[in-house]
Amino acid sequence: MGKPDSNIIYGLNDVPPVKDLLLLSIQQMLLLFTAATFPAMLVKEVGGTIEEAGSMVALTMIAAGIGSVIQASRNKWMGSGYLCPNVCGPSYIAVSMQAAWSGGFPVMRGMIVFAGVVEMLLSGVIKKLTFLFPPVVVGLVVMMVGVSVIPVSVSNFFGIKYAGDSIAWQDVTVGLVALAVMVSANIWGKRAVKMFCLLLGVLAGWILALVIIPDALSDMNRIIHEPWIAFPVHDLNQLSLGFSSKLIVPFLVISLCGSLKSFGNLVAAQKISEPDLKELDMKPIGKGLLADGFTTSMAGLMGGMAVDTSSSNVGLAAATGAVSRWIAICAGTIFAILGFSPKLSTAIAMVPGPVVGACLLFAVSFMIVTGLQEMTTEKLNERKVFAMGIAFILGVGTGLVPEVFARMPHFLRPFFSDPLSSTTVLAVVLYQIFHIDHLWRRFKKDRPE
User: Fold this and answer.
1) Are 356 and 153 in contact (CB under 8 A)?
2) Suppose 10 and one of 38, 205, 255, 324 were both cysteines; which one would form an S-S bond, judging by CB atoms 3.0 to 4.6 Å apart?
3) What single string gives the DSSP state of each residue in 196-234?
4) Who contacts 151 (Cβ-Cβ below 8 Å, separation ≥6)?
């Protein structure tokens, strides 16, 4: 169990009672479904069939569920042993579409396998790079893990699905009520109420949505026509793989960016799960990246879309104080099983957008504040202020003014397409540049005469 003076209710290796374990797993799984529609969107964009879309969603869910179990398992081969589940990787959508357009789904799947292998190779290097991540850099990376989720959080919270959509008072009301219940339960609730604050908010928001949003009730009717059990692969050709040498560079770059994103999520999970650690323990983080790369390749082999670690789920663990890795193992198992049940997966996927937005806002708040706390654990001098400040401004700028960064040379654009990866790269590089004289003095001191 967590220490009496900490906010942790179920610690890293604690096994919650069965009832708590199931409810906490369902609570985590609700956030996993926020990305479950990405594979369907991708198939639709490249002209695939409804059957192909359904299969890709189900297969990606199965891969993400298995990956979540592997990630949370602490063994000698792979897995960080932290609560850091897998979801469909949104950062891979653009390059996956490019691969599907150029060579069909087999090429897309083959390149996803390639990207996963690249991340697995990178995982062996990261263990030797502890010196690149002092507390101030780690804190900024953790904070940016939360910042990178803000766009999807806010758009869902206000019920905006497409650019130019108007904001309806019903959506705003549902989002505010759901968020108010979550926050109130977390602040003033006792043990059980605090742990299940997200479930309580989802329930309150969903009930209200069924009353005041007409589409919410009609969406529920879709569940009736879905089968309880269905095998997701309808055609063995769906498992064939291809490869394109023209796509090597784009997938190399996106694999590096995905690795940086997962690195940030794993660092955040470590800080939340083991707050007494004085410095980063790179061994579980390296094993976590290995597991993430393995799961990405597995998703491609299975016929699904690339997967990635979920920052919002890490934030939820921090908010509830339930950081037990057994929650991720249970949630991942259920999520994989739901890939074989269209009726159950559709039911959970029917959570109204404003409620999903409230969940994300709730979880992201903890990620941002945790990062800020880590940044201020050591005194900030001018070198650190400028390194972190410039990295933050330019990193956030990729999301605020993307059209500016779109004019950069083609080979640099992938590094400046996402606030998290951009800020991470810039923070590491600028920190080392601004401390180059310190590094030189250390080198001269350590060099034998």
Assistant:
1) no
2) 324
3) THHHHHHHHHHHHHHHH-HHHHHHHHGGGGS-S---S-S
4) 399
pTM of the entire structure?
0.73
Q: Which residues, 6+ apart, have CB-to-CB distance to 313 below 8 Å?
A: 28, 31, 32, 83, 84, 85, 87, 328, 363
- DSSP class of residue 167 equals P
Q: Is 86 helix (H, G, I), strand (E, B) or coil?
A: strand
Residues in contact with 211: Cβ distance below 8 Å, sequence separation at least 6, in sequence order: none
The model's pLDDT over 105-119, given as tens digits with 9 standing for 90+, comes to: 888 889 999 999 998
CA angle 8, 9, 15 (to 5 degrees): 115
Q: Rounded distance, CA 188 to CA 343, Å?
A: 36
> d(Cα 401, Cα 420) in Å, to the nearest integer?
15
Closest CA to 326 of 33, 11, 61: 11
Q: Show me where the domains of the chain are located.
A: 18-138+215-352, 379-449
- The answer for residues whose C-beta is within 8 angstroms of residue 330's C-beta and 6 or more apart is 21, 22, 24, 25
Backbone dihedral region for residue 167 (phi beyond 0: left; psi -120 to 50: alpha; all else: beta): beta
Angle, nearest 10°, between helix axes 353-375 and 311-320?
Answer: 80
Residues in Cβ contact with 353 at an 8 Å cutoff, skipping those fewer than 6 apart: 156, 159, 161, 171
Q: How many helices (H) and strands (E) are present in the chain, helices listed first?
A: 20, 2
What is the per-residue pLDDT across 70-126, written as a single tens digit (0 to 9) for each? 999 878 889 999 999 988 766 677 678 778 888 888 888 899 999 999 989 888 877
Are 116 and 63 in contact by the 8 Å Cβ rule? The answer is no
Report residue 212 as tokens: 């005041």
Q: What does the buried/exposed string (b/e) look like for 182-197 if buried means 16 or more CB atoms within 10 Å of the residue's CB?
A: bbebbeebeeeebbbb
